[in-house]
Amino acid sequence: MVTDNDQYQDIPQDALERLNRESGHYVFTSDLTVNEFVLVDEAGFEPLGLVMGSSIYHIGYQQSAWSKNQEMTVLSQAMYNARELAMSRMEEEADALKADGIIGVRLEVKHAEWGQHLAEFIAIGTAVRAKDGTSHRTIKGKPFTSDLSGQDFWTLMKTGYRPVSLVMGSCVYHIAHQGMMAALRQVGQNQEMTIYTQGLYDARELAMERMQLEAADLQAEGIVGVSLNESSHQWGSHVIEFFAVGTAVKRFQESKLTAPSLVLPLDDPR
């Protein structure tokens, strides 16, 4: 039974009641499609419930040099810490359900109109548990996390790999402004804007490197489904966040790939 104690101190009481599997009204919830639900079941897992975490975070201020490429370390740390808080609270809800992991994780950032420099960071996914009782937790004892779809999760498991953790790297970077004289010299000419190229290149590399370090710390073998997203949020055109995210994976057995079942409409002629 889920109780309100120090172990789950970050989870609201209403959430604890929703996650109580021993209550008479408990049913699992999930954002999986029908086909995803069937494939997760065929992969040997059962969904336990939709889990989520939230953090409303005040993003601080940092002065930048007008004509210099540089990382905005205060902002980078804020964006990373806020996402980690949301992720950890989602993992706490999964712990309350005695889950092995969370699949289909989505990370969202929403800026609050009622507070300057405020943003809500949300993590949400479906908690699952292995039907054979095998533990799939990380080396740090936490539920595994993954942004893979149900179909991709089935394929990964059947080919002998398992998800370890959703890993990420963030870099908020100030791209230098170009001086008036430099702009005048380029009028009517084709040429590379090297100061912009180098700034964007450096920022992406920092985000990617931090994501890889997270995977290495968890002894993963690789990262699949990597996406590299760019957003200026509310900082203006010359300050950009580069956010790298993917699912770290590790081999655990030989491939067991077989044809999956298909869920067909009732009026399907087959």
Notable characteristics:
270 residues, alpha+beta, Translation Initiation Factor IF3, four-stranded mixed sheet, four-stranded antiparallel sheet, 6 helices, 8 strands, 29% helix
Rg calculated over all Cα atoms: 22 Å
**What is the CATH superfamily?**
Hypothetical protein apc22750. Chain B
Average pLDDT metric: 84
Determine the N-to-C terminus distance. Answer: 45 Å
Main β-sheet: number of strands, strand sense, barrel status?
4 strands, mixed
Instruction: Determine the CATH topology.
Output: Translation Initiation Factor IF3
Q: Going across the biggest sheet, name each strand in turn.
A: 1-4-3-5
- Per CATH, which architecture? 2-Layer Sandwich
Structural class: alpha+beta
Work out the helicity level. Answer: 25-40%
Principal-axes shape call: globular
List the helices and strands in order: HHEEHEEEHEHHEE
CATH class: Alpha Beta
Question: How many distinct folded domains?
Answer: 1
Number of strands: 8
- Poorly predicted ranges: none
Tell me the strand percentage band: 25-35%
- Number of helices in the DSSP assignment: 6
Pfam families: YbjQ_1
Family: Belongs to the UPF0145 family.
Protein name: Heavy metal-binding domain-containing protein
Concise synopsis of the structure shown:
The chain has 270 residues and is of the alpha+beta class.
Describe this structure in words.
It comes from Sulfobacillus harzensis. InterPro entries: UPF0145_dom_sf, UPF0145_YbjQ-like. Belongs to the UPF0145 family. This protein is α+β, with helices and mostly antiparallel strands. The protein has one domain: Hypothetical protein apc22750. Chain B (Translation Initiation Factor IF3, 2-Layer Sandwich), CATH 3.30.110.70. The protein has six helices and eight strands. A hairpin with a 6-residue loop joins strand 3 and strand 4.
